[in-house]
Specification:
The protein has 373 residues and is α+β, with helices and mostly antiparallel strands. Helices cover 26% and strands 27% of the residues. The chain folds into two domains: 217 residues, FAD/NAD(P)-binding domain (3-Layer(bba) Sandwich); 138 residues, D-Amino Acid Oxidase, Chain A, domain 2, CATH 3.30.9. The strands form five sheets. An eight-stranded mixed β-sheet has the order 7-8-6-17-18-19-16-21, with helices on both faces. The protein has a six-stranded mixed β-sheet with strand order 10-3-2-14-24-23. Helix 1 runs parallel beside helix 5, helix 1 packs across helix 8 and helix 2 crosses helix 8. The structure holds flavin-adenine dinucleotide. The site of flavin-adenine dinucleotide has 37 residues, from helix 1, strand 4 and strand 22.
């Protein structure tokens, strides 16, 4: 019979990836007692937060995500200062592709008084000669690279430093609700609490099934590929972070390509919206050869500074919502934190702050992040 731990923690956070860790960090900073439960350790390759880097950018077609990025930037700097660790490098970000998308991003940046520069494709290739650019190019200096695994490790350290507790290698088997209370069950213990944050990435739908009324999230397999730069382009300063938002000359092809230099690994390149179905119970890490070839072809066509034959692919989980939105919302004692859709990492500390607010009784003001429409 599992041992009952009664109201020992104000909050229990399930899932020690980037989002659960950021939430536990924020709760601990606010003086709340918090326990973070993770089925593995901070370092594992099974979820969405591992690996070297992710893209940070403020440019977005939707105002709400630019505002979130602005809050996140401030909180990234706070986390770096507290932990004395460098996590975010603003090296600049380039968006290129069809004019309608580029103009939308430019408008949102302008509305928020953020810098951006329109460039011709030739001027952009002169500045970043390893890349070929599509018809419309927008450079934003407030973009760059954020270190993924280093962020999770740093958050775990900060949680403990602030008095929070972490239970690694412990799977939450079930969450039950009785009135205002929730019971979080592991193999050996049951925790009764008034606030559970479920930040379990691809496993969120399984853990909250029957407990909250939530719109559908679908875990999918993404496949990024690293490439080695050719010798004359082997210089970190020659590679901004970039998103190619659909190839202008092929309007029927809506593939969105992104990439960035990951120190020690090469330049990561991937199609954002080419994903494979994923079976969480029987996960395959095998590389999809056809996707790898398509990425090599993209590199040949658009990134001549990279060696297409140096392709090294890995797999990772995108937990997707139909509109590429997040779920950050509370119902009873359960707060759901599912900000993936392949675009959550840049906002990690801000997501932690919003989720902590919700867990402490706040309400969700952003309609598109509610549990259900
Ligand atoms: C290939 C790829 C590229 C990406 N690129 C970018 C990018 O450039 N920019 C950007 O902003 N974002 C990007 N993202 C998105 C970003 O990485 C995710 O939004 C983020 O990592 C999601 O973190 P998470 O904590 O929600 O999920 P996860 O990292 O998956 O964490 C969930 C955790 O919950 C644990 N867990 C699950 N079930 C249980 C249980 N029952 N008991 C205990 N623990 C449990 C899991 O083990 C896991 O550690 C990318 C994602 C991928 C996959």
């Amino acid at each position: 019979m599992p041992r009952l731990s009664d109201f020992a923690f104000d909050h229990i956070v399930v899932g020690g990836g980037a989002m659960g860790s950021a939430t536990a960090w924020q709760l601990a900073k606010r003086g709340r007692s918090v326990l973070l439960i993770e089925q593995f350790t901070s370092k594992h390759l099974v979820g969405s937060s591992h690996g070297g880097t992710r893209i940070f950018r403020l440019g977005h077609q939707q105002e709400v995500y630019t505002s979130l990025g602005i809050s996140a930037l401030q909180l990234w700097r706070e986390l770096e200062a507290e932990s004395d660790t460098s996590l975010l490098e603003l090296i600049g970000h380039v968006d290129h592709g069809p004019v309608e998308v580029i103009a939308d991003i430019e408008e949102v940046l302008n509305t928020n008084n953020l810098d951006s520069t329109r460039m011709s494709p030739d001027a952009a290739s002169e500045r970043w000669p390893g890349m070929v650019f599509d018809t419309h190019v927008l450079f934003s200096p407030d973009g760059g690279r954020v270190y993924a695994q280093r962020t999770v490790d740093t958050l775990w350290k900060q949680i403990v430093k602030l008095g929070g507790e972490i239970l690694p290698n412990t799977e939450v088997l079930e969450i039950k609700i009785e009135g205002d209370n929730a019971f979080v069950e592991t193999a050996t213990q049951t925790f009764r609490t008034q606030s559970v944050v479920v930040a379990a990435g691809a496993w969120v739908p399984l853990l909250v099934a029957g407990l909250v009324n939530m719109r559908q999230l679908t875990p999918m397999r993404a496949q990024p590929t690293h490439f080695t730069p050719n010798p004359e382009f082997d210089d970190i300063d020659l590679w901004p972070t970039f998103i190619h938002r659909g190839i202008s000359s092929e309007p029927q092809n809506d593939t969105m390509w992104y990439g960035l230099w990951t120190p020690g690994e090469g330049v990561k390149v991937a199609p954002h919206n080419v994903l494979d179905p994923l079976d969480l119970e029987d996960r395959s890490f095998e590389v999809n050869a056809q996707h790898e070839q398509e990425t090599q072809q993209y590199v040949t066509d658009w990134l001549p500074g990279l060696d297409p034959n140096s392709a090294h692919s890995t797999t990772c989980i995108y937990t997707t919502d139909a509109n590429e939105d997040f779920i950050l919302d509370r119902q009873g004692p359960i707060t759901v934190c599912s900000p993936c859709s392949g675009q959550g990492f840049k906002y990690v500390p801000a997501i932690g702050a919003i989720t902590a607010d919700l867990a402490m009784g706040g309400t969700q003001a952003v309609t598109q992040w509610r549990l259900s429409e």
